[in-house]
Queue: 2 jobs
Job 1
Amino acid sequence: MRTLEYIRASSTEQAIATHSRSDATAFLAGGTTLLDLVKLDIMQPDQVVDVHNLALNQIETLSDGRTRIGAMVSNTQLANHPRIKSEYAVLSQALLSGATTQLRNKATTAGNVMQRVRCNYFRDGVSACNKRNPGSGCAAIEGHNRSVHAVLGTSDQCIATHPSDMCVAMAAIGASVEVQGPSGKREINFLDFHLLPASTPWKEHALKPDELITHVTLDAPLTNNQSAYLKLRDRSSYQFALASSAVILVMDGKIIREARIAMGGLGTKPWRALEAERALQGVTASPEAFAKAAAIALQDAVPYSHNAYKIPLGRQAIVRNLMTLGTGALA
Ligand code: SF4
């Protein structure tokens, strides 16, 4: 039996200082990812620093219209917050599409940002997996890669999708991740936080050693926006996305003034489709315009042996979402 030391932090500074005492260390928040992986012996920390009781559980509206979310705000609290439901509907919907009620009650905002991949070869503890055991290979590339493997942002080292729904909505909204570490505080653009696997798939995020996420700050909501999250999956609850879309639209009659699109289940990180957004800006809403934008969003997709279906499915996830939001303009 492996033993580990449990330390409950009483301040952010103490959490960071304690975390820095060991290389085999982990912050513990809701524990919905970490404890699973420790039990599976995929992660082997010799100490965990519990940050769950830190005073990082507020949702505030800043004077510039942005919304600052404490790292320990639960997924349930965030999804049901009145401002999130009214101004950032896409985020509330994405959160409520994930996991189960019990898990959402425990899972935190920072933990959701930091969740690990669901690749079966990563979690079985024995297969070749560059993410778990650098240099060992990637069993998924020639293996069973139907559901939790990507078609965008892959490399010959790793093809696992990022599993979060919440992060897809945040990528569409625009956000920054506030972190605190031994050298002080800094902000990381949300789109730069998660890293592509490239030749170093074990590096998953832009955190430096011993840095702790303290907040995620959402950009101010677009005026008169409509937004929605559409998640396509094998069963209707407690299942990861095969393909999903987070769409935000601002319409002026039939003209699309602004469009934001991000995708889940398709990329190795939450995937913002900037070129597809540009293709919609200023054009008249139509099924043809939506289909063109969806084609652009998936134009660089590379399929593997069992997941080519994700390319048309991903296009449909975007088109259906746009059609639903743009119904008034199309009528
Ligand atoms: Fe490991 Fe990534 Fe390959 Fe899965 S896809 S086996 S996580 S390297």
Job 2
Amino acid sequence: MTDRDLSSEARLAFSRLALLIDGQWLDAQQRRGEPVLDPASEDALGVLPYATLADLDRAAEAAQRAFQSWSRTTATERRKYLLAASALLRERAEKIAHILSLEQGKPLAEARAELTGAIEIFEWYAEEVRRLYGRTIPPRAPNVLQTVSHEPIGPVAAFTPWNFPALTPARKIAGALAAGCTLVIKPAEETPGTAIELARACVDAGVPEGVLNLVFGVPHEISETLIRHSAIRKVTFTGSIPVGKHLAELAAAHGLKPCTLELGGHAPVLVCADADIAHAAQACAAARYRNAGQVCVAASRFYVQHEVHDAFVEAFSAAADALTVGGGLEAETTMGPLTNQRRLDAMSRYVNDARERNAQVHRGGERLARPGWFFAPTVISGLGDDALAMREETFGPVAAISSFDDLDEGISRANALPYGLAAYAFTRSARTSERIARDLRAGMIGINHFAVSLAEAPFGGVGESGYGSEGGSEGLHAYLTPRFVTRLLM
Ligand code: NAD
């Protein structure tokens, strides 16, 4: 199929947006709906049906019913379902990448890479579930047998954001299903098309009715209804800190339900004087402008040792100049639009604040004069630590650069915020690398590169970035609870 055919197929998918409850695809019927907008044009792509309160109850009850049998399937059976779903996703990857790029805005090459990552997550959990070992504990008496097994925790309520419409739902769906849990997932209303395709692959792979339920609607209505529901035993959320805290309070108030919270950060990057500056600037710019900066582990605030500061800013600005900003499906695009108007407004706030503080705006700083939520790749230096762009997760294409004198200062400024998702450093010294690996406060640390998001590695933060991990064997254990059984043999 040509790119043009794939684009029209992707557009067609938005005329069939639906909820999935207890194995049934449900379209608008009597439900209210909201338009899904193309971030590159602000035009409507389709209308998304919103779940009613009765729909949400049905979804939670379906997940509870399905849990009775799904939790008793063998690891080998669950592996087969996950591998069948991932095979279908591979077959459909090109079409889904077009849907993803259209609704979220990222360039097609990034959409393809994201989808590959999502498929790898299904495959990883399919394999990892076969190693779901328990253990025996040496007894205190010869006629006692003591075992620990890992049991699925129960039906899960999952909430995912719009910046990675394939990767974030894949982490939650594949992790929960592998563990023997059922789920009701609410992906972002901005980007429903990709999540619907993930769910379709699971259904077509034979995942039984009620095991995976997909709903959209008014976010707070859905979380309040699902988290209060007695069927739900676990909450997992990826999104902003205030919403994460609110959901954790609800989960505590209604059954002390355990949570996994991935709440973003404001990842610092230390660029030391002994680093390969050309490599560092190129890699940092790529990590800052990927997905137009809307990445929770994005390189976000840059501390550059003063000897190499100017050279770094120059090389970084040249990398920003080399970007081609445009719609995700336009062939030359290397940076797409922001996904919603909220991010566009936030970028103007960061730049205005920097200008008021007499920082230097080397590149960008403006919305692009064309329809769609486009903001120019922006480079700002000379910011103090009290500037908004140094304190708040910018989540957009604004690079905030500051300089530091010695490593102690760099580390202490990098650690000064309450967040701790990812942190990075560039250095050629093994001793500095080790010091940084030990002293930066974050759940994930990258030295001389940014590859921290892998199916096989734990992904999660500390402090206000949340708690719990997705990915790696830790991601499977997020949906399990240990059961200790001791038997006195008679
Ligand atoms: P947000 O927290 O309002 O929305 C993120 C997701 O959470 C969306 O899908 C939204 O539908 C959902 N959500 C919002 N309120 C909810 C509620 N009461 N119950 C259940 N789900 C709810 O964030 P936003 O306005 O879209 O973005 C603002 C900031 O959030 C960003 O600047 C960024 O800092 C952070 N963010 C982080 C991530 C991440 O990957 N950790 C992703 C998106 C946004």
